[in-house]
């Protein structure tokens, strides 16, 4: 797929290309995957997404396969273990946020029947189809990510500012921000 035109941000790294070609912008409705991205996006705050992708498998191992029930029950011993794990981002605030977010995630699942139903309400269950010609046109936030951030914070989530929410929407396919000349644009447009 090396000769296909992609979004510029995915160039320069094979890992970025794989992520771009297979995951970014694909509508997700699986609670486990939605939770994984919620955790990873929070850890990404202030860092590059490539840093997170490079550590993704270490995160998966350290955080029990992103099992929300297990993470919600982490105590101080597990926090100390995570703080010593060189394979992940060792930031106490972000680790504490992951635990807190797991607890809120489980509460939301019970309340709404699924996290999918809760998170997709912000786009009325539809993918927002943008038609950007150039990567420079893609915003860091939107009215939808502003509203999502406000509600997630109100519901108890941490590390869910509007920029993180917008990146989350891109990663989980709630918004299609592939530029129109990218080979994935049409493919993602046809998904729902």
From TrEMBL:
UniProt xrefs under InterPro entries? Adenine_glyco, DNA-3mA_glycosylase, DNA_glycosylase, Tag
Q: Tell me the Pfam families matching this sequence.
A: Adenine_glyco
Q: Which reaction does it catalyse?
A: Hydrolysis of alkylated DNA, releasing 3-methyladenine
Which Gene3D superfamilies has this protein been placed in? Hypothetical protein, domain 2
Q: Where does Zn(2+) bind?
A: 7, 20, 178, 182
Q: Which UniProt keywords apply?
A: DNA damage, DNA repair, Hydrolase, Metal-binding, Zinc
Q: What does this chain do?
A: Hydrolysis of the deoxyribose N-glycosidic bond to excise 3-methyladenine from the damaged DNA polymer formed by alkylation lesions.
Q: Which domain of life is it from?
A: Bacteria
EC number(s) per UniProt? 3.2.2.20
Q: Name one GO biological process term.
A: base-excision repair
SUPFAM superfamilies associated with the record: DNA-glycosylase (SSF48150)
Molecular function as annotated in GO: DNA-3-methyladenine glycosylase activity; metal ion binding
Q: What is this protein called?
A: DNA-3-methyladenine glycosylase I
């Amino acid at each position: 797929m090396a000769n296909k035109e992609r979004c510029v941000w995915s160039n320069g790294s094979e890992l970025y290309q794989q992520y771009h070609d297979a995951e970014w912008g694909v509508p997700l409705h699986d609670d486990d995957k939605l939770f994984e991205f919620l955790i990873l996006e929070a850890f990404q705050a202030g860092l590059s997404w490539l840093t997170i992708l490079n550590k993704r498998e270490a995160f998966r191992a350290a955080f029990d396969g992103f099992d929300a029930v297990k993470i919600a029950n982490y105590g101080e011993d597990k926090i100390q273990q995570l703080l010593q794990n060189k394979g992940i981002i060792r930031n106490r605030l972000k680790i504490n946020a992951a635990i807190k977010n797991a607890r809120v995630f489980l509460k939301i699942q019970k309340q709404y029947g699924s996290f999918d139903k809760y998170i997709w309400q912000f786009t009325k269950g539809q993918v927002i189809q943008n038609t950007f010609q150039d990567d420079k046109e893609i915003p860091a936030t939107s009215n939808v990510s502003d509203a999502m951030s406000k509600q997630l914070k109100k519901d108890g989530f941490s590390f869910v500012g509007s920029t993180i929410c917008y990146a989350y929407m891109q990663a989980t396919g709630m918004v299609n921000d592939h530029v129109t000349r990218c080979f994935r644009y049409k493919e993602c447009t046809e998904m729902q």
